[in-house]
Amino acid sequence: MEFDKSPNLKYQAVTVNSAKENCGNPQKFYIELIKAFFLQKKNAEIRKNLSCYDCKYRD
After folding, report:
1. Would residue 11 count as lying in a domain?
2. With 50 as the cut, is the pLDDT of residue 57 above it?
């Protein structure tokens, strides 16, 4: 999947990949990826709001 090359979206991609590593749920990963890509909030807000509900390490 391709990402926009802007710094904000690059950071968002890293955040979502981290969530995928923690819970290993591809479906949740893609849902959060779509949210991160289209919400386009500030980085800190996205990091705060992205959580994988199947993951015991959620924020």
Report:
1. yes
2. no
